[in-house]
Amino acid sequence: MNAGCEKTTAFKMAGTSLRLHIETEDREYPSMYKLKLQGKDLENVPAELFTLRELEVLCMSPDRQSSLNYKLCNVPPEIGYLTRLRILLLDTNDLHNLPAEIGSLTRLEKLSVSNNRIRQLPPTIADLKNLHTLHLANNQFSEFPAPILQLENLKFLDMCSNQLRVLPPAIGNLKNLETLLLFDNQLSELPEEFGELTRLRCLWLGDNFLQSLPKSITKLEHLMWTPLLCPTATVDGNPLVNPPAKVCKGGLDEMARHFAQS
Q1: pTM of the predicted structure, to 2 decimals
Q2: In terms of Cα–Cα distance, which of 169, 118, 174 is closest to 142?
Q3: What is the Cα–Cα distance from 258 to 117, expressed in whole angstroms?
């Protein structure tokens, strides 16, 4: 969006280069107090940041130019003071974990920590009951994080490019999930409960080790598998046998016929 069309108020923080912005015509985050940390402020997060209790959007993702020199190595536990946060962006840093205090951000709606080195999430993530969007792509998860299974309002989950081997049966608890991105993992099977995700409209399963799909996947009626119809579900790059990839591309009816005959 053209910044010249926005009505912006900026509040400078004394002793730092930080400015808190409110852009009343920002289409993505309208009338929300937002702050972006860049450069050296990522390396040494100013303590004054955590006094901004009205902050609603916080971006601590480095821009392309500064990411080679300045990255966030840890999220201070004081992040828990910012209880009005609704959007927290921490992508493309050098994070190995998130503090337990992140669970205090109970108004959080979107959390993005893709392109880091995170292996597990703190149990307190389960307290983020308003979270609807979670980006965890390109990290080091080998097990599906259990706290996510309690996020019943989650609509979007991106865990592409990790090392996930299995999905727990409790994945079926995420009944509001509309987008699930699991491209480029090490999944060898999916639980039968996968078919309980009946609101799914986008499913990426490409580049895994799947040899079979559960019969229940035919319950996911909002997915488009046929290449000619702009597919929203993909299984390319798997050694699929049951059903074969060709059958999957024929759509739900062909998959259902295959399962009925097998």
Answers
A1: 0.90
A2: 118
A3: 41
Identity at 133, one-letter amino acid code: T
Domain at 3-261: CATH code: 3.80.10.10
Q: Where are the domains of the chain?
A: 3-261
Q: How far is CA 76 from the centre of its chain?
A: 21
Q: In the structure encoding, which two tokens stand for residue 232, read together?
A: 């929203």
Q: Whose CA is closest to 208, among 246, 241, 240?
A: 240
3-state helix, strand, coil in the chain (%, to 5): 25, 15, 60
Rounded Cα–Cα distance for residues 87 and 55 (Å):
10
Local structure of 80: helix, strand or coil:
helix
| Angular region, 161: left φ>0, alpha ψ -120 to 50, beta rest | left
For CA atoms 202, 205, 207, 213, the dihedral sign is negative
pLDDT tens, position by position, 118-157: 999 999 999 999 999 999 999 999 999 999 999 999 999 9
Q: Is the dihedral angle over the CA atoms 102, 106, 108, 109 positive or is it negative? A: positive
